[in-house]
Design brief:
alpha+beta; 3 domains; 4-stranded antiparallel sheet; about 45% helix; about 25% strand
């Protein structure tokens, strides 16, 4: 997909790929182009207005020339009449003042992306934001059983901050995490209750500075490690 913009001396081109966007800019001072991943483009939005400095300089020069001619006519003939150059310079300065180009600036890791603020520019920004969110979700979204719930929660909050998840999508994922944690705690409690009636067998004992540490187990030792940790104890007397 390719989108182009043209305003005054600015020529902007965006080519959208699957993982990155190709950006090129040509203006009166030169040209620049680079490719950047969507996930390396910031959510921050800045604005900039550009006017034609050359037109301003010419307008001021003509106004100055007209003032000189008007002054010369006054001192020589005592006739006050604005010179043609004053009117022409004033017109050019009005054109300079009202003819401006507004840009949206998208910072990225490789430099700023300039987008002319018009209907095509709105399409460009929307396309970048949608592809950026899709790439973030592809790389970082989803439940991961090997990851701690707290780490997953932080990851989802970060995706929400980056605009990859809406408020509703974030809440849905947090609810799944909360329900999963509640279910796991209930399972652990039921497991502990079922094992509490079984006789304990000593596993290991060792002496500390102020007493004895010991670990005991029953038939649930291999069923759930969390229950075994609850049987790690301390006593000031050697257990029998």
């Amino acid at each position: 997909m390719e989108l182009k913009q043209k305003r005054n001396s600015n020529r902007i081109r965006y080519v959208f790929g699957e993982d990155e966007v190709q950006y090129s800019l040509q203006d009166g001072s030169g040209s620049r182009s680079f490719s950047v991943d969507y996930t390396d483009i910031s959510r921050d939005r800045q604005s900039m207005e550009e006017r034609n400095a050359w037109l301003r300089n010419v307008a001021l020069l003509w106004i100055a020339l007209g003032v000189v001619q008007t002054s010369a006519a006054w001192f020589s003939d005592h006739v006050f009449k604005l010179a043609f150059w004053v009117w022409l310079g004033a017109f050019c300065y009005l054109v300079y003042w009202f003819r401006r180009t507004s840009f949206i600036i998208l910072p990225s890791s490789k430099g700023n992306l300039l987008v002319v603020d018009d209907t095509t520019g709105a399409r460009i920004v929307q396309e970048i934001e949608s592809r950026r969110a899709a790439n973030f979700r592809r790389d970082y979204d989803g439940l991961r059983p090997h990851e701690e719930p707290l780490q997953q929660r932080r990851r989802f909050l970060w995706l929400h901050k980056e605009g990859a998840l809406s408020d509703a999508e974030l809440q849905q994922r947090l609810d799944v995490l909360d329900h999963g944690a509640a279910g796991e705690n209930g399972s652990n409690a039921r497991l502990a209750d079922s094992c509490s009636t079984e006789p304990l067998e000593p596993v290991s004992r060792w002496r500390g500075r102020n007493g004895y540490f010991y670990l005991e187990r029953n038939h649930c030792f291999n069923a759930h490690a969390l229950y075994v940790l609850t049987r790690f104890s301390f006593s000031d007397q050697f257990p029998r």
